[in-house]
Amino acid sequence: MKLIECPRDAMQGLPDFIPTATKTAYLNTLLQVGFDTLDFGSFVSPKAIPQLRDTAEVLAGLDLSATRTKLLAIVANLRGAETALQHPEISYLGFPLSVSETFQRRNTNQSPAEALADVAAMHERCEQHGKTLVTYLSMGFGNPYGDAWNPEIVTDFTARLAALGVRIVALSDTIGASTATTIEPLFSALIPAFPAIEFGAHLHTTPTTWREKVAAAYAAGCRRFDGAIGGIGGCPMATDELTGNMATENLLAFLAEKGVDSGLNATAFGQARAAAGQVFGFH
């Protein structure tokens, strides 16, 4: 079981800038919990995501001396990837490849074909630098634009990524459109079809629909889940109304019901949740 905590996704759409020192202190708290990976920031245009314009400064303040957690940074183009590659502390680069052409253009100002070409180049550069590319198939369960979506389209995108040698693919429910009836069949088809790929679930959800989504992905064999403490966040490039991330607390509750050891330090998680409440203003 791999749990990926996503403070980057939690922060990116917030209108009020969180001071760099506050971000750094919060991330250092998260690094003590024992998550597999911390999606900590992004190297994208500050005009597009002003909240994360200080990612390099935040990175410089992180204490990585006593953590097993690996760092992931989101990039939107080759220029951002080259910047991220200059930081040896970063293990993973994440790129949002959309199965919706409308969203790809809104998010990275590219066609899907151009984005796939970038994925190929990024994967090659990551291999050269000893890093791993994580490709997010955004709008992986549908989109609000009327663009075509079906499981065959997702499978075709995955096949193209497999041909490039991409090893981690996260199916991303960017707007909370997924249901158990779309999640389970998709994972059930993809996981055995592409054994060289580690599949993850990046599910946005409402407080009342989270359980069915997690249960569907888990039943289909997914063992990599993204979450954000408090269920904060959403993609400001997708729709005007943000649908929050999967709450990490809910993921942990589900695993506990299944008798699965999350591998996290419960005391450190409690401290991190208290810190999140102060950063994001919830109890």
From TrEMBL:
The keyword Lipid biosynthesis does not apply. Keywords: Lyase, Metal-binding. It comes from the Bacteria. It is an enzyme of class 4 (lyase). Residues 1-270 form the Pyruvate carboxyltransferase domain. One of its GO terms (molecular function) is hydroxymethylglutaryl-CoA lyase activity. Its EC number is 4.1.3.4. The keyword Phosphoprotein does not apply. SUPFAM superfamilies: Aldolase. It holds the Pfam family HMGL-like. InterPro entries: Aldolase_TIM, HMGL, PYR_CT. Belongs to the HMG-CoA lyase family. This is Hydroxymethylglutaryl-CoA lyase. It comes from Hymenobacter artigasi.
